[in-house]
Amino acid sequence: MSKLTIIAYKDVALTTEVGRMEAMYNPEALSLDYAARYEEEPALNDPIQTTAFVDANAGRLDIQLIFDGSLPTHREPVEAQLSRLRSLCCVVDATSGQTRFLKIQWGSFNWHGHGYFACRMERLSVRYTLFDRDGSPLRATASLNVIEDVEPGIQRAKLGVRNPQPSVVQVIAGTGLSLMAAAQSATVGAVMVDKPPVDYLELAKANDLDHLDAIRPGQALAWPAGKGA
User: The Contractile injection system tube protein N-terminal domain covers which part of the protein (predicted)?
Assistant: First the structure.
């Protein structure tokens, strides 16, 4: 039976380790689940429907960890091992307000070429199956459900996506939202040809505007993500 290693970190970049532990792991199968979400796009006056990609969900992994204190080689009580598991996976950091960022390693499994699975705990449940005479647990199975959480810079590097640059535009007196979008798009087209123009409705949505006249001179508006200003 191989051992699985869980390493906990304070940061998503996995640079500041706060603890680690090993647990027995012998799966009959291992499943990494990924999913994407789409929306149907019905065409006007056309019975043919197409689908448009909306977003991709983070990968999910479910693992069953075995804790057996009845074996002579296991000197640490089962409850103590489970307490360490909870402290690594479930504790909320007082500074960041986040649960620990985890790195899961198992033998020579390469996790799609990374050598580990970067994730965070989504759910942890424990099932006790053997007890000592005094009621202390001797054997337990912990079901750990984790969700993939990879450092954003690594994700962008994989996808070939540039880091987003913050961008704002300022409202000029006598200029409406549609005119601002058109003028700014013209500038974008002339100066930054790799950036697509923005629609005034996108500009309104990016700034949570209830209507197109809800702007005032001097107001700073956020340019929609992925657009240039």
Answer: 2-152
Domain range list for the chain: 2-159, 168-222
168-222 shares the fold of 2-159: no
pLDDT reading at 229 higher than 60: no
What CATH number does the domain located at 2-159 have?
Answer: 2.40.30
Cβ within 8 Å of residue 84, ≥6 positions away: 19, 21
Torsion, CA 61, CA 144, CA 64, CA 67, rounded to 10: 150
**Number of H-type helices and E-type strands within the chain:** 4, 9
3-state helix, strand, coil in the chain (%, to 5): 20, 40, 45
Percent of the chain at pLDDT above 70?
81
Q: CATH number of the domain at 168-222, please?
A: 3.10.350
Write the pLDDT tens digit of every residue in 27-44.
Answer: 888 888 999 988 887 766
More confident residue, 123 or 192: 123
> What's the rounded Cα separation, in Å, for the pair 7 and 101?
8
Distance from C-alpha of 157 to C-alpha of 152, rounded to nearest angstrom: 9
Round to whole Å and give the CA distance between 180 and 177: 5
Strands 220-222 and 137-148: unpaired
Per-chain mean pLDDT for the chain: 80
